[in-house]
Amino acid sequence: MLNRLTWLSSGLFWRTFVLLTFLITVSMAVWISSITIVERTPHARQLAAQIVSIITLTRTALANSDPELRRELLLDLKESEGVKILPLEDSDTIQPPPDSETIAEVEAAIRLKMGAQTRFAGDINGHEGFWISFVMEGDPYWLGLERQRVEHTSGIQWVGWASLTLVISMLGAVFITRLINQPLSRLNAATQKLAKGKTPEPLPETGAEEIRSTYRSFNQMVADLAQVESDRALVLAGISHDLRTPLARMQLELEMANLTDDARQGMQSDLNQMDAIIGQFLDYAKPTDEANFTLVDLSAVLRECAQAAGRMPDLNIKAEISDGVQVSGHETDLRRVFNNLMENARRYGKAPGADATELDVLCHVNGDNAIVKIADHGSGVPDSEIDRLLRPFTRLDAARGQANGAGLGLAIVDRVVRRHGGKMRVRNRSSGGFVVEIGIPKI
To answer: What is the rounded average pLDDT for all residues in the chain?
Structure first.
C-alpha cells in the first residue's frame, strides 16, 4: 500500500491530475459560494414580492367572491396554485420555518411590506409548508405555499450539480494530463531503453514546437551515440589488428631466439598479458545486437562454466543451480561473463592461508528475474572502494592482490549484463568474502 501511495505521489500524471482536480474543486466551491452570496438577497426580495402579490390577490379574490362560492375558490387555489388558506386560531400548533439565511431575508422583506405583526410558520397543525399570516375583513388567516417555492436550491441539489460538474471536469483533467504527459512518457521510455544499452526507435517529431524540438534533439543524440559506438568499435578493431600482428611476429621471433628458459617464459608472459589486455578492450567495446538473442538455458551454461572452472587445482566450487532457468540473450557473452567472474574469484578470492579458493555458485528464480550469485570466501574489498569496482580501468591492487589486465573485467561483466536488460550488484559478505549478484529477466 505504501509503495502504491509513493507511486501515486511521484508520478507526473497523478501529480498533474490531482493538481487540476484540486484547482477545479476549489474553483467550483468559490463559484458556488459567490453565486449563493451574491444571488441570495435579490432572490429573497423577488420571492418576497411574489408572496406579497399572492397574498394581496388571494385576499382580494376572497373578499370579492360570493361567500357561498368561497369554498370552491379555496379548493381551486389549492389544486391549481398550491395556495392553502386556514383560519388563524390561538390554539394552532405552530412550528417555525426552516432556519436558513434565504428564508430569513424573505421574512424580513415581507414584514417590510405587510407589517411587523406578520407571522411565519413551517408547520400548522401538521400541515407543512411556508405559512404567512394576513388579515382579511378583520379576521386573521394563514396562507400556505409549498416549501419548494420558497426554499432556495437545496444542499443536495448543489451537491448533485457539483458532483456532476466535478466528474466532467475530472474526465477533462484526465484527457489534458494524458495529452501533456504522453510526450514525456514516450521520451522517458526511450531514455530508459537507451540507458540499458539498446537503441530506441526514433521519436515522432510532431506536436507542439517544444515537443518537436526536444524529440529532434533526442533523435540526433541517439544517432550521434550510435555513430560514436560504431566508430569506437571500428577503431578498437583496427588497433587490435595493428597490435596483434607485431605481437605475433614477436612471439615467433621469441620462439626462434636463443634465450634462456626463464627469459623466454618472462617475455611470453608479457606478450600474453598484452594480448589479454587487447582482448579486454575489444570485449568492452563490442556492441550487443538484440537481433542475435536466442533462448539460453542459463542453468546449463552456468553449470558447464562451473564444471570447467572446477577442474583447476586451486579452485573448489560448490554449486547450487536450479534447473530450467531460461533467459533471452547471447550465450557466448553470458558464458564469457561467468568465466570472467569465476577467474576473477580464483585469482583474488582466496582466503588468507588457504591452498585453494572456495567459491559458491548459485542460480535460482526470484519473481521475474533469474538470479546468479558468485561468492568467494576471501578478504573482500574495502567498503569505500566497492562503488569504484564497476568503473572501467579500475584496479584495486592493494585490496585484491596484483592484477594482470586493464581493469576492465567487472566493467565488461556489468556492460554485458545491462545489455541483457539485467542488473549487477557487488558487495562484501557478512561472513567474509566478496559477492557478485546478477539479475536477468527470465523467460
So the answer is: 80
Q: Which amino acid is at 299?
A: S
* Residue 122 belongs to domain spanning: 2-156
Residue 188 belongs to a domain: no
C-alpha pair distances (Å), 339 with each of 148, 292, 305? 86, 21, 6
Do 360 and 387 belong together in one domain?
Answer: yes
How many residues would you count in the chain?
443
pLDDT at 401 > cutoff 80:
no
| Domain presence at residue 174 | no
Regarding predicted confidence, which is higher, 54 or 178?
54
Residue with cell 515537443: 211
Predicted local distance difference test score (pLDDT) of residue 295: 92
Residues 6 or more apart in contact with residue 221 via CB below 8 angstroms: none
279, pLDDT greater than 50: yes
Q: Which residue has the higher pLDDT, 70 or 44?
A: 44
Phi and psi torsions of 361, nearest 5°: -120, 120
pLDDT at 153 over 60: no
User: What is the DSSP code string of 191-255?
Assistant: HHHHHTT--PPPPP--SSHHHHHHHHHHHHHHHHHHHHHHHHHHHHHHHHHHHHHHHHHHHHHHH
What letters, b where the CB count within 10 A reaches 16 and e where it falls short, cover 352-388?
eeeeebbbbbbbeeeeebbbbbbbbbbbbbeeeebee
pLDDT of residue 288: 59
Indicate whether 275 and 217 sit together in one domain.
yes
Q: Are residues 216 and 240 in the same domain?
A: yes
The reply to whether 176 falls in a domain is no
Extract the runs of DSSP E, i.e. beta strands, from 103-185.
120-124, 127-136, 139-145
Considering the domain architecture, whether residues 218 and 360 belong to the same structural domain is answered as: no
pTM: 0.48
Check residue 207 and give left, alpha or beta (phi > 0: left; psi -120 to 50: alpha).
Answer: left
Residue 191 included in any domain:
no
Distance CA 240, CA 228 (A): 18
CA separation (Å) from 119 to 142, 156, 242? Answer: 9, 28, 112
429 with 373, same domain: the answer is yes
Q: Are 314 and 333 members of one domain?
A: yes
pLDDT at 441: 92
Residue 64, all three cell numbers: 370579492
- 34 & 113 share domain: yes
Residue 250, C-alpha cell as written in the block: 614477436
**Res 11: pLDDT:** 61
Answer yes or no: do 78 and 143 share one domain. Answer: yes
